[in-house]
Task: inverse folding
């Protein structure tokens, strides 16, 4: 089934052609250089750049796949969650294209597609499994019972893990994208030199909270600056990274134990974090848990993952029409 998938939820305009889990093309037009000037994504600029790039990106995806638009069986698009203006560009383009070609339109949830990024190279992976999805906007633990059936069991009460990384990086004067840069420069953590809190959540045992940690890091940086003390940036970066990974890993491993999972999947932009990967690999090996995470090129936003998830959404009868609209926030288990 040939699907043209479109992704425009944030600052990447992406298109891809997929056939089930098979990748026929993968095109991404990034806006990182422009947003770096402002230290983060500017929604209005992102929307305008999507509008400028989307037609060419889709044409390139079709050309790279060595097919014609008329060969397509469906068009898929990320419709939620994300920046509303950015999402609208992709949704409206996809609706018009599907209508003109007379083929189905498949709406895809952004977090579901991040999970599906793991199917691309891991041919043997299939539900059920536990998934930790971590990015700049989301931190959520989900029981994936089938390709289109999701049961969230924990999530962030405030900031996401990726946001904590990004805001810390910005406070340290590191260039955008902050989380990636922070991971690259981090050396050895030292909680004695830079003590940081480990927030605990009452109520749901698998929920996260990163707001307090983010605030503590920013206050630490400000206090040291006011005293005229030099900050050891690589050490503080490593200390923040360690603490965030502590929180993510603790809840995730407890969830695998409670629900007796032997398959763990990690998804989202933060799944590229080097410490998270290495420590989870070590812990899963000890517990005889099979760990999956996407190739680095599929950790960030891309359209391949949208196309792969769209294949399963289509099989489950999740088809859109001209009334489809973009949605800025939507739970992963929507029906």
Result:
């Amino acid at each position: 089934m040939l699907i043209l998938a479109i992704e425009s939820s944030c600052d990447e305009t992406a298109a891809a052609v997929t056939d089930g889990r098979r990748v026929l093309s993968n095109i991404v037009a990034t806006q990182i250089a422009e947003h770096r000037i402002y230290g983060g994504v500017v929604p209005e600029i992102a929307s305008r750049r999507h509008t400028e790039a989307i037609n060419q990106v889709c044409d390139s995806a079709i050309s790279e796949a060595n097919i014609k638009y008329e060969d397509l069986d469906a068009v898929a698009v990320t419709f939620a969650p994300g920046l509303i203006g950015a999402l609208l560009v992709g949704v409206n383009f996809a609706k018009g294209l599907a209508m003109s070609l007379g083929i189905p339109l498949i709406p895809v949830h952004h977090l579901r597609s991040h999970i599906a990024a793991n199917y691309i190279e891991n041919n043997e992976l299939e539900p059920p499994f536990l998934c930790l999805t971590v990015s700049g906007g989301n931190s959520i633990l989900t029981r994936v019972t089938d390709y289109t059936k999701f049961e969230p069991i924990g999530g962030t009460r405030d900031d996401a893990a990726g946001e904590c990384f990004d805001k810390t990086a910005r406070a340290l004067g590191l260039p955008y994208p902050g989380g990636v840069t922070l991971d690259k420069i981090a050396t050895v953590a030292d909680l004695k030199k830079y003590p940081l809190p480990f927030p605990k959540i009452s109520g749901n045992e698998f929920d996260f909270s990163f707001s307090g940690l983010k605030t503590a890091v920013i206050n630490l940086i400000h206090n040291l600056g006011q005293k005229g003390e030099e900050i050891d940036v690589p050490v503080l970066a490593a200390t923040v990274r360690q603490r965030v990974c502590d929180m993510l890993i603790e809840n995730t491993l407890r969830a695998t134990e409670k629900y007796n999972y032997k398959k763990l999947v990690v998804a989202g932009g933060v799944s590229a974090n080097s410490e998270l990967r290495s420590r989870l690999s070590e812990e899963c090996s000890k517990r005889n848990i099979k760990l999956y995470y996407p190739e680095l090129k599929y950790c960030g936003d891309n359209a391949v993952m949208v196309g792969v998830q769209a294949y399963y959404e289509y099989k489950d009868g999740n088809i859109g029409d001209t009334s489809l609209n973009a949605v800025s926030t939507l739970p992963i288990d929507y029906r």
